[in-house]
Amino acid sequence: MMLTSENYYSQEANREYISASQYKDFMGTYGKPGCEEYGIAKLDGTWVEDMEESDALMVGSYVDSHFEGTLDLFKAQHSCMFKKDGELLAKYIKANDMITRCERDSEFMKYMAGEKQVIMTAEMFGAKWKIRIDSYHEGKCIVDLKTCQSITKHFYHKDIGYVNFLGEWGYYIQGAIYQEVVRLNTGMRLPFYIAAVSKEKVPNIEIIQCEQGLLDEALTEIKSNTQKILSLKGKEFTPIRCGICDYCKHTKVLTGPIWSSDLLGEV
Q1: Which residues, including other chains, have CB under 8 Å from residue 50's CB and lie 6 or more apart?
Q2: CATH code of the domain occupying 11-253
Q3: HSE of 200 in the Cβ direction (CA atoms, 13 Å)?
Q4: What confidence tens digit (pLDDT) does each residue in 12-55 have?
C-alpha cells in the first residue's frame, strides 16, 4: 500500500502498518494505560472515538494545522470554533496566541522550517511501520510539534517516581520509532527534537532534544512488544481488556457485585 496524506490515517493503512499512536493504543504509556481489546476494536471499526473534541484538543489541533499548512481545511471542518465574521470564539483565542508566540521566536521557527508532513515507511522488527514527520530537516534532524498543558509539569508514578510530559505521554516511544524508520530509509540516525508550546494563559515554548539513551531504551521496549502487536492484529489470541478506558466502560457486562476494597485497584 502506497501511503499519501489522504490515506495515511485510513483503516486500511492502520491494518497494514503499525504507527506510534497504534503502538501506544496497545501498549500504553505512563499517562494512559494500553488496552488490547480497545486497539483491536479501533482497527475493526467496532469502536469509533468520540468526535466531540474538548476545547483543549481543538486548540491543539488548530495550532497543528497552522504549522502543517492545512489551516483552511481545518477551519472548514470546524466552523463551530468561529463567529459569523470568521474570528475565533473567545475560548479558542489562545490558539492564535500560541502561534504568535512561536512565530516571534527565530530559534523555534528555525526548527519548524523543515519539510512538512513527510511520510516514511519501513520494515522494523518483522512489521511494517509508518511515520509522518512534522518538520524534517534532511540529514540534520527530526522535529515533532507538541502542544501541551504545561512544558514544566511533571507526573508522579509510585514505581518510577517523577516523569516529564514526554515520558508521561510516550513521546520517547514516538521519537524512537521516527528515528529508526528514518535511519532505515536514509542510513542516518538523526537527533529527535520536540518543538513544544504550552496552552497556558501566557504560552511557554521550548525546543527539547531527546537524549539518545532514552530513545535507545524505548526502541528496545518497542522491539520486544512488536511481535505481540502483530499477533493481536492477526487475531492469534484473545486481546486483554484494561477495564478502565472508555471502550471498556462502554462495553462492560456486569456478572455480580464487587467488594468495596476493589475500588482502590492497585494503589
Answers
A1: 246
A2: 3.90.320.10
A3: 12
A4: 999 999 999 999 999 999 999 999 999 999 999 999 876 455 78
On whether the CB atoms of residues 209 and 192 are closer than 8 A, the answer is yes
- Residue whose grid cell is 512488536: 226
Residue type, 206: E
List, in sequence order, every beta strand (DSSP E) within the chain.
115-124, 127-137, 141-148, 155-157, 161-163, 192-198, 205-209
Query: What single letter denotes the amino acid at residue 118?
Result: V
Q: Is 16 left (phi over 0), alpha (psi -120 to 50) or beta?
A: alpha
> What would the grid cell of residue 25 be?
493504543
Cell of 176: 524512537
List pLDDT tens digits, range 2-24: 999 899 999 999 999 999 999 99
Element (H, E) at 229: helix 212-233
Of the pLDDT bands very low, low, confident and very high (cuts 50, 70, 90), residue 224 is: very high
d(CA 120, CA 237): 30
Residues 184 and 122 sit within 8 Å (Cβ to Cβ): yes
The Cα–Cα gap between 222 and 55 comes to: 32
- Would you say 88 and 82 are in contact if contact means Cβ atoms under 8 Å apart? yes
One-letter amino acid identity for 4?
T
For residues 136 and 118, the answer to whether their CB atoms sit within 8 Å is yes
CA-based max dimension of the chain: 61
Phi first, then psi, for residue 186 (nearest 5°) are -120, -15
168, 170, 171, 174: CA torsion to nearest 10: 180
User: What is the distance between the alpha carbons of residues 196 and 108, in angstroms, rounded to a whole number?
Assistant: 9
